[in-house]
Amino acid sequence: MVRTALAASLLAIGGCAVAGANEQTPAAPESVAVAPEDDAAADAQSNAGYDAAMAAADERQRVFDDPAESVVLKGGLVQGGLAFGETLPGAKVTLDGEPVMVNDGRFIIGFGRDHGPSALLVVTHVDGSVVRRALDIGDRDFPVDRIDGLDQSKVSGFTEEQLKKIGEDKEKKTAARRTTDAAPYWANGFSWPVTGRISGIFGSQRILNGEAKTPHSGVDVAAPAGTPIKAPAAGIVRLAEGDMYFEGGLVFIDHGQWLESAFLHMSRIDVKPGDKVEAGQVIGAVGATGRATGPHMHWSLKWMGTLVDPALVAGDMPQAGGAGN
User: Fold this and answer.
1) What is the three-class DSSP state of 241?
2) Is 222 helix (H, G, I), strand (E, B) or coil?
């Protein structure tokens, strides 16, 4: 479900430009920023969207624990949600018919922004017994901004040189995502890489001159340039590039079992591909590189190619000066 916001954009102040960071479709060659009337309005709108997302997830936090069938599932069964499962070693797991990686009984399942109202989880044990569970997936109300009357050159179109760079960057990202570690580095949970004001929420979308842009792929936290970014959980660095067309400074961290964090628009990168990072380790710094309208941390979370909401796994934002800084 979506709602319409007429004048302001969740992403306009200190946020990502149009939709280029989302990777599925190219954005405009120039940023389009339509600012709320003041910072208080921006704070109120972003915080309202964040609070609504967290409330929706809280309502859908389900725990399925059946000792007789040896399956435990904990997490948000909601659009953009991620759930963590545990079963007997050697079991095979599928979600909606697709195989899920399992390590010593541990697994993850996720649901995209537009996932339907149900999903089917199937666990097959080594003794041949099968557990089938129909999961109810809650829907969410994602903000949509409709902005008309813009110069069309700022909404679509790329030069040949820009398209060449975009294609080269896509190849690098695709190559970095060809492998994952089987270890469940995610098992100890996630924390906020940077603390501060939420300036952009997962799943929000712009419609510019009637042209729908790709929904926002992650969460934005407004912070001064140079603010340290910390790994939200342990993992292996798969990509560390400083000059991507859309993302600018970009880092991928593989948390195991096809769960990946991506950090965009970084002003400094302190890690390299192949590095093992621990939760809380500084990986670089906040910036406004690539297609960004101001310094902020953009954090995306992707499971098996499906974007999910980082805010739902990181939980409530700590107070300034708290654990995330």
Assistant:
1) strand
2) strand
Cβ atoms < 10 Å from Cβ of 20: 25
Instruction: Name, in order, each residue with C-beta under 8 angstroms of 165's C-beta and a sequence gap of 6 or more.
Output: 245
**283 and 271 Cβ atoms separated by less than 8 Å:** yes
**Residue 219: strand pairing partners:** 299
Amino acid symbol at 320:
A
**How many other C-beta atoms can be found within 10 angstroms of the C-beta atom of residue 48?**
14
In this structure, the number of other CB atoms found within 10 A of the CB of residue 126 comes to 10
Rounded to two decimals, the pTM is: 0.81
- pLDDT at residue 48 in the model: 55
pLDDT recorded at residue 1: 42
Nearest to 22 by CA among 278, 238, 302, 268: 302
Go through the domains of the chain in sequence order and give each one's CATH number. 2-55+141-314 (2.70.70.10), 61-136 (2.60.40)
Residues 66 and 14: their CA atoms lie apart, in Å, by 46
